[in-house]
Design goal:
Layout: E1 5-11, H1 16-25, E2 32-39, H2 45-52, E3 57-59, H3 69-82, E4 87-90, H4 99-104, E5 109-113, H5 125-132, E6 136-143, E7 153-160, H6 167-190, E8 195-197, E9 200-202, H7 208-211
Parallel strand pairs: 1-2, 1-4, 2-3, 4-5
Antiparallel strand pairs: 5-6, 6-7, 8-9
C-alpha cells in the first residue's frame, strides 16, 4: 500500500462527521490518516474526542482576529503546513472562507453539505426540502470552491422524504448518510481515484460496487 495521505479535519462543534472519518482511518487499508483536528472554537466538543483518540489538535479562535477573515485563515494555513497536511476535510467548520484559503488548498479541500447539491445551498436545508415537497433528499461531499456550497461533486447519498417527516427526523436520516459517504469520498480523493475533469469528478465507477461509493439509498 502506498503512503497514506495526511488529513486535517476542521470543526466548529461536536465533530459528528469527524468521528466517522477517524473511525474509517483506523482501518489499516484506508488511504488516509487523520493527522490533525483543528477548531475555530476552544470549546468545540470534537477536540476532546480527537484527543481521546490520540490525534493532535489545534485551535485558532476566529474571535482573536477581529473580523479579519484572511488573517485568521493565514494562521490556520500555517498550522496545516507545519503539520505537513495534504488534504483538508471540513466537517461542520462554520466559517465562510476567503479566496486565500480556498486557493491555497484548491482541489485538496473537501466539504460535506446536508443536501443534494446544487439544490438547497446554505442553511436550513431540511426545512426547505420539506417546504418544497421534494421526495428525495440527502447529502453531498464536494471539493471547495470560491462560492459557498459549490464545487465539483465527489459523492452523494440519498434518502426518501417521508410523509410524516419533520426537519429533525429528516436531518437524522441524512446525518446517517453523511457518516457513510464522507469516509468513502475522502478515500476516493486520498487514493487518487477521484480525478477532476472539466470541473466534474470522475471516479472510474464501472460497476454497482463502485457506484455505491457515490450513492447510498438506505
Amino acid at each position: 500500500m502506498s503512503e497514506r495521505k495526511r488529513v486535517a479535519v476542521l470543526i466548529s462543534g461536536r465533530g459528528s462527521n469527524m468521528n466517522s472519518l477517524i473511525s474509517a482511518a483506523m482501518h489499516p487499508d484506508y488511504p488516509a490518516e487523520i493527522a490533525l483536528v483543528l477548531a475555530n472554537k476552544p470549546d468545540a466538543g470534537g477536540l476532546a474526542k480527537a484527543e481521546e483518540m490520540g490525534i493532535p489538535t489545534a485551535v485558532v479562535d476566529h474571535r482573536d482576529y477581529k473580523g479579519d477573515r484572511e488573517a485568521f485563515e493565514r494562521a490556520v494555513d500555517e498550522i496545516l503546513r507545519t503539520a505537513k497536511i495534504e488534504i483538508v476535510a471540513l466537517a461542520g467548520f462554520m466559517r465562510l472562507l476567503t479566496p486565500f484559503l480556498v486557493n491555497a488548498w484548491k482541489d485538496r479541500m473537501l466539504n460535506i453539505h446536508p443536501a443534494l447539491l446544487p439544490s438547497f445551498k446554505g442553511l436550513a436545508t431540511h426545512e426547505r426540502a420539506l417546504d418544497e415537497g421534494v421526495k428525495i433528499h440527502g447529502a453531498t461531499v464536494h471539493f471547495v470552491s470560491a462560492e459557498m456550497d459549490d464545487g465539483p461533486i465527489i459523492a452523494q447519498g440519498a434518502v426518501p422524504v417521508l410523509d410524516d417527516d419533520t426537519p429533525a427526523t429528516l436531518a437524522a436520516r441524512v446525518l446517517s448518510v453523511e457518516h457513510q459517504i464522507y469516509p468513502k469520498a475522502l478515500a476516493l480523493v486520498a487514493s487518487g481515484k477521484a480525478r477532476l475533469r472539466d470541473q466534474r469528478v470522475a471516479t472510474g465507477a464501472a460497476d454497482a460496487s463502485q457506484a455505491d461509493a457515490r450513492l447510498v439509498v438506505p
